[in-house]
Amino acid sequence: MAQKNTNDIIEVCGKIAKILLENGAETTRVESTVEYIGRAAGIQLKCHATMTAIFVNVKNAAGSLTHLEKPRVSSFNLQKVDEINTLSREFSSHKIEFDQLQSRVEAIDHQVIDFSWPQKILSAGLVSVAPMLLFKASWKDLLFAFFIGILGYLASQLAGRHSATPFLGAITGGLVISLIATSLKQAGIADSSSNIVISALMPLVPGVPLTNSLREIIERDIISGLVRGMDALMIAGSIGIGAIVGTFLANLLIGVL
Fold first, then answer.
1. Do the beta carbons of residue 50 and residue 223 sit within 8 Å?
2. What is the pLDDT of residues 14-28, one digit of tens each?
3. Quick check: 172 and 156 in contact, CB under 8 A?
4. Please, are residues 247 and 182 in contact by the beta-carbon 8 Å criterion?
5. Which residue, of 75, 167, 176, 240, is most buried by count of CB atoms within 10 Å of its CB?
6. Reading across the β-sheet that carries 45-49, which strands appear in turn?
7. In which broad location class does this protein mainly occur, judging by the first location in its UniProt entry (predicted)?
8. In 3-state terms, the chain is what percent helix, strand and coil (to 5)?
9. Is 146 within 8 Å of 129 (Cβ atoms)?
10. Which residues have CB under 8 Å from 194's CB, separation 6+?
11. Given pLDDT bands bounded at 50, 70 and 90, which one contains residue 1?
């Protein structure tokens, strides 16, 4: 295979690995997908992925070539992971050519895949309501959890978008939720502030990083698993700090009034 074609293949594979890792795929999936695409392209690739660097290596008659990608994992989008997986299957089954793979990977990389704000708001409210069913809460508290969960989610998104400070969004969301729920309880409007807080915090909980962390550790990718786990714990701790501060402020304000 020509040197230029080999360079193109490992560059595309590196970009695929970066897209997968940045959008919520575990490192085992990243490595297997890249090596799978390499075999379909006719070369034997070796991929090593961590949370801070991705290496794609191939050895041929001209020597050894290594491509490096530096991922920046700050959020995730599982729809991009699904699209890349679908694309790799199409390429491996020879339904598309390499040029098509290359162009579609570029399109996915620059594509902004997101849900509309009404969908996000409704989803945040529904996620906040679900735990209340386990608590056998009153209909009044269930309704409060729905709207407070939405307000907490919006506060978290707003703070995260307008500040580069890590975890500020999680702190803000937890603070808003706890402040409103505790204030309603202190005013005698809500029945249980703790149930409302626990339920309304659900949209902020880092479920995907925590799940991926456990999967990484089970697959013996200890370093990546610990990194993901620490990130999830930092987010959870930030939510807890915000909730504690919100409860304190609510009790302070109600006491003054």
1. yes
2. 999 999 998 888 888
3. yes
4. yes
5. 176
6. 45-49, 54-60, 63-69
7. membrane
8. 70, 5, 20
9. yes
10. none
11. very low
